[in-house]
Amino acid sequence: MNQLAAFTNLTPTELLVLGAVVFVASMVRGFSGFGLSAVVMAAAVFILPPLALIPMLWFLEMAGSLAMFKGGMADADMPTAKGLIIGSAVGLPFGLLLTMQLPVEASKVVALSLLIILAVSQLAKLKLPFLATRVGTYGTGFGAGIITGLAGAGGMFIALYTLARNLPARTMRGTLSIYLLGAGLLGLITHLAIGTMDHTAIARGLFFIIPTLLGLYAGRALFVPRLEPFYKPFCLTLLLGLASLGLIRTVSN
């Protein structure tokens, strides 16, 4: 355990807690198609600052996207996914640069506040018809890229977009999976260029791929037709609770 802790530059306790958080977050991703980064960010922001979590989460999102690629390709709205990916690639550098300029505590507040706003918007079934246009698609991708750089929660913004399109649950899951894969591949270039992807982030990302895959397959096993109506409210309620608790603790410190 001590060797693993040294490898990831974490204490043994932090390693175990993060491993449990990643497993639960990956179950959410396997069940819903999104939410892995958002849940980890909400629950783990007191162990690592957002700027340290975001490049680590790149590995976890990529592992999840590759594991779900086959089903995602079959169910996804591919033209929409491509537009979202292009927009996200443009928006991500702005979000990362903004995060790098903010103090750690301020970045936590921004990240958690964004998660709460997105979760409430989706629980309220907020629908924005203009998003279902070509400009809306690229604009949504751009916004998701900024949010990914700030809070690692671009998938939440894309999920809000799919609500405006009234996409079925399986199409929504598939589109999100393809978006996260494509945006991740292009996002790596940004991380390397800006310098946020360092050796520590790589070590943590590689180690936490294991609980990611275990949680992902457990979550996928729960995605059965009779549970589909409940998957989104469950994930969003969990995320809202975690982010709200985290924000209260951050502000009160």
TrEMBL record:
<feature type="transmembrane region" description="Helical">
    <location>
        <begin position="80"/>
        <end position="99"/>
    </location>
</feature>
<keyword id="KW-0472">Membrane</keyword>
<feature type="transmembrane region" description="Helical">
    <location>
        <begin position="39"/>
        <end position="60"/>
    </location>
</feature>
<keyword id="KW-1003">Cell membrane</keyword>
<comment type="similarity">
    <text>Belongs to the 4-toluene sulfonate uptake permease (TSUP) (TC 2.A.102) family.</text>
</comment>
<feature type="transmembrane region" description="Helical">
    <location>
        <begin position="106"/>
        <end position="124"/>
    </location>
</feature>
<keyword id="KW-1133">Transmembrane helix</keyword>
<feature type="transmembrane region" description="Helical">
    <location>
        <begin position="201"/>
        <end position="218"/>
    </location>
</feature>
<protein>
    <recommendedName>
        <fullName>Probable membrane transporter protein</fullName>
    </recommendedName>
</protein>
<dbReference type="InterPro" id="IPR052017">
    <property type="entry name" value="TSUP"/>
</dbReference>
<keyword id="KW-0812">Transmembrane</keyword>
<dbReference type="GO" id="GO:0005886">
    <property type="term" value="C:plasma membrane"/>
</dbReference>
<feature type="transmembrane region" description="Helical">
    <location>
        <begin position="176"/>
        <end position="195"/>
    </location>
</feature>
<feature type="transmembrane region" description="Helical">
    <location>
        <begin position="15"/>
        <end position="32"/>
    </location>
</feature>
<dbReference type="Pfam" id="PF01925">
    <property type="entry name" value="TauE"/>
</dbReference>
<keyword id="KW-0813">Transport</keyword>
<feature type="transmembrane region" description="Helical">
    <location>
        <begin position="144"/>
        <end position="164"/>
    </location>
</feature>
<feature type="transmembrane region" description="Helical">
    <location>
        <begin position="230"/>
        <end position="248"/>
    </location>
</feature>
<dbReference type="InterPro" id="IPR002781">
    <property type="entry name" value="TM_pro_TauE-like"/>
</dbReference>
